[in-house]
Amino acid sequence: MLRRKKSPQFHCGKIVNNFTGNGYMSAQIAEDVWSNFVSFMENRCSRAEFENWIAPIEYVDGSDPVTLQVPNVFVQQYLLDNYKETLNNFFPKDKKGEPLISFLIKEQEKQKKKNSPPPKPKKKTDFGQELFFNTSYTFENFIEGPSNQFIKSAALGVASRPGKSYNPLFIHGGVGLGKTHLLHGIGHYVKKHHPKLKIQCITTEAFISDLVHHLRNKSVDKMKRYYRNLDILLVDDIQFLQNRLNFEEEFCNMFEALINQNNQIVVTSDKPPGQLQLSERMVARMEWGLVAHIGTPDLETRVAILQYKAEQTGLHLPSNIAFYIAEHIYNNVRQLEGAINRLGAYCRLMNLAVSKEVVDSILSEMFQAPVRSKISIDRILHSVASMFNVRESDLRGSSRTKEIAYPRQIAMYLAKELLGESLVKIASSFGGKTHSTLLHAWKKISAQLEKDDVLRRQVQMTRQNIEA
Predict the structure, then answer these.
(1) Which pLDDT score, from 0 to 100, does residue 372 have?
(2) Number of domains composing the chain
(3) Is 433 annotated as a binding residue?
(4) Is the pLDDT of residue 231 over 90?
(5) In angstroms, rounded to a whole number, what is the distance separating the alpha carbons of residues 374 and 4?
(6) How far, CA to CA in Å, does 40 sit from each of 218, 301, 382, 400?
(7) Is residue 286 located within the same domain as residue 169?
(8) What span, in angstroms and rounded, lies between the C-alpha atoms of 39 and 352?
(9) How far apart are CA 67 and CA 79, in angstroms?
(10) Which pTM value belongs to this model?
């Protein structure tokens, strides 16, 4: 547990310093910001990294600058070398871009009082490993959308009836889209509803480390007995098993043993099984059950995520600002969370309300620019056809019905915006239309975008799908 000392700024539980308009923090705000930083790092670091480098740091004082106590100079240096940018997102910085934080070096460890109660032991598995599930990663706070609704339902089905369906469940998708969240959500659900079941959640790297340890200690049989007696095994980032044949073989044997006993396995990866550099045997085993993809959240889902995260941190985020941020940050959920943390910290420290100007100032470097090199007319037509439920051939055709002509004009607008080609060449892709027809369509859609929020969101979603 992180230990904190009471600041001299506190007296009988009352705050002496208050937040000022000059950007200084009151003692309470400073301590809250430090708590937010610690919670943020706990969700982002590995457990070992957090316990070694973040947890030993003590909050001491909230005056300007904030004072932290570190056990030694190495912890201070590690914090500044590796997390300076994150610290700057939470705390003010000086003219040189350094976080306004003062450090006290702890000369020696204080002796604990003899009558102090012993610390509560961490919950461990029978194997002696700590069983840790992130408290923020539950099914209840997983924001659903078209890109992840199916996979969340599958994960909930596995958690409700382990070993009965979707076994193994293989979840794959890009970084920061919620794979680990679902894995830990399964763990929380099982612990609550099936407390007698033996469950383990482990990263692939941790599994490899365990195997190396037991090989050195000649206790591999003990490790095998432990894993093969589990009711549920959750494995994160299986891609790290690539090009490690000996470890892969042992994992595959364990995998088969659990499946043959109808014990549940859930695996996550950044790629589908067929794209991993693993043996055919391993790939075939992982494709036995359900292979499900978790995609990039759409605009409405990103807005819901932003609003939920803002509510959790006590930040008032107007709907129009949420849409503005979601339209410019769309690769993954972690970036959205980082944007809210950065925005919330700045607004609290500077006593500002959230506005478009503040967002542009604080988050502009996180905004993502479109990549045009891969965009083609075929891609544009495909995305528009999917959005408006029409056929691509109709967009290239001559039908003048509103159901076809309107999406065609949107496709022409996007083509002019995204393709660096002549109007004549672009227009010819729409069934031989003239450049004047294309220009008319572009002007019409441009004018409607100024006043039609629904159209603006539809075009934005289509554009992001094209640029993805």
Answers:
(1) 45
(2) 4
(3) no
(4) yes
(5) 52
(6) 39, 22, 40, 54
(7) yes
(8) 23
(9) 14
(10) 0.55
Contact 182, 142 (CB under 8 A): yes
Instruction: State the virtual CA torsion across 395, 396, 402, 403 in degrees, nearest 10.
Output: -30
Q: Which CATH number is 101's domain given? A: 3.30.300.180
Nearest to 79 by CA among 95, 61, 91: 91
- CA angle (309, 175, 362) in 5-degree steps: 45
On whether both 153 and 255 belong to a single domain, the answer is yes
Tens digits of residue pLDDT in 31-54: 888 888 888 888 887 777 788 788
Residue 154 lies inside a defined structural domain of this protein? yes
Q: What is the pLDDT of residues 421-467, one digit of tens each?
A: 777 888 888 887 888 888 899 889 988 888 888 888 888 888 878 87
Q: Is 295 annotated as a binding residue?
A: no
Higher pLDDT, 347 or 3: 347
Q: Is 21 annotated as a binding residue?
A: no
pLDDT above 50 (res 349): yes
* Annotated binding residue 313: no
Supply the range of the domain harboring residue 74.
Answer: 10-105
pLDDT for residue 406 is more than 80: yes
Same domain, 87 and 48: yes
For residues 289 and 305, membership in a common domain is answered with no
